């Protein structure tokens, strides 16, 4: 399993509308995200519009390719692109991935195997 975290910047003047557009997301888009193999997908919005996203997948490249080819995802991302600052391309394809520096489960497993 791969854990993916990313960051985007939402335009501050569009924060309320951005939140409203995700309450709820189109049912067909939810189905496409799941069909792409992404799960445990969450978005977190900080003050000022910094958006952090997280999801898990078995094959991120395949999930990206699936969504890139999806007509539903193309329509959704076209509508969402205006919400973001300095974004070149579709939000789902241009988000900046974050570097994972810590995972509790992985370190506990490593510590247990070292102790054995």
Structure write-up:
The chain has 116 residues and is of the alpha+beta class. The chain has one domain (2-115): Alpha-Beta Plaits (2-Layer Sandwich). 45% of the residues lie in helices and 22% in strands. It is built from 6 helices and 4 strands. It has helices at 15-21, 27-35, 60-69, 71-80, 91-94, 104-115; strands spanning 2-9, 39-45, 50-57, 96-97. The protein has a 4-stranded antiparallel sheet, with no helix packed on it. A hairpin with a 4-residue loop joins strand 2 (39-45) and strand 3 (50-57). The chain is globular and about 55 Å long. The model has no long low-confidence stretch (mean pLDDT 94).
Give the structure's gist in a few sentences.
This protein is an alpha+beta fold.
Keywords, please?
116 residues, alpha+beta, Alpha-Beta Plaits, four-stranded antiparallel sheet, 6 helices, 4 strands, 22% strand, globular, Rham/fucose_mutarotase, L-rhamnose mutarotase, Dimeric_a/b-barrel
Tally of distinct domains: 1
Helical proportion? 40-55%
Give the tally of β-strands.
4
CATH fold-level label: Alpha-Beta Plaits
Spans where pLDDT lies below 50 across 5 or more residues: none
CATH C-level name? Alpha Beta
Total of helices: 6
End-to-end gap:
25 Å
Q: Give the biggest beta sheet.
A: 4 strands, antiparallel
User: Which structural class fits the helix and strand makeup?
Assistant: alpha+beta
Give the overall average pLDDT.
94
Tell me which CATH architecture applies here: 2-Layer Sandwich
The rounded Rg comes to 16 Å
Strand residues, percent: 15-25%
Q: How do the SSEs run, as a string of H and E?
A: EHHEEHHHEH
Protein name: L-rhamnose mutarotase
Pfam families: rhaM
InterPro entries: Dimeric_a/b-barrel (IPR011008), Rham/fucose_mutarotase (IPR008000)
């Amino acid at each position: 399993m791969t854990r993916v975290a990313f960051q985007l910047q939402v335009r501050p003047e569009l924060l309320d509308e951005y939140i409203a557009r995700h309450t709820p997301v189109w049912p067909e888009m939810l189905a496409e995200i799941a069909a792409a193999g992404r799960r445990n997908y969450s978005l977190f919005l900080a003050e000022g519009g910094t958006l952090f996203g997280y999801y898990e997948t078995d094959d991120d490249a395949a999930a990206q390719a699936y969504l890139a080819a999806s007509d539903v995802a193309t329509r959704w991302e076209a509508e969402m692109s205006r919400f973001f600052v300095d974004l070149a391309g579709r939000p789902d394809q241009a988000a900046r991935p974050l570097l994972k520096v810590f995972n509790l489960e992985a370190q506990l497993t490593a510590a247990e195997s070292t102790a054995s």
